[in-house]
Write a structure and sequence with these properties.
Number of helices: 1
Structural class: mainly beta
Distance between the termini: 64 Å
Radius of gyration: 17 Å
Shape: elongated
Largest sheet: 5 strands, antiparallel
Oligomer: single chain
Helix content: 10-25%
CATH class: Mainly Beta
CATH topology: Immunoglobulin-like
Amino acid sequence: MKHHFFSFILLLITATAFAGQVTVPTVQVKSLGEHKYRFDVTLQHADKDWEHYANRWEILDTQGNILATRTLHHPHVNEQPFTRSLTTELPEHIKTVIVRGHDSVHQYGSKEVTVTLPQ
């Protein structure tokens, strides 16, 4: 009996540790000219409440420098996956970016997306 109880607790701890990380299933980017881009980013996350939800996504250069951030101000419990947009100007030399999600508990998610910017 003790063996089954400890196995259950271990399984519960393991599932909690890995459950709920935010992922970025899709990113669409449209060039608006003059180095401006519109990013439509879809996030998937098991938002639970105000204590555990996807709270932002970021655009980074290939060296890991944050170029832009889209803050999410509330949980999306009943809207999964969900897409939010951001229009931003990027430096002229940037040709490829990385988009990653973030949640209030696990921080950065397990799936980032690398995107080549349209010309």
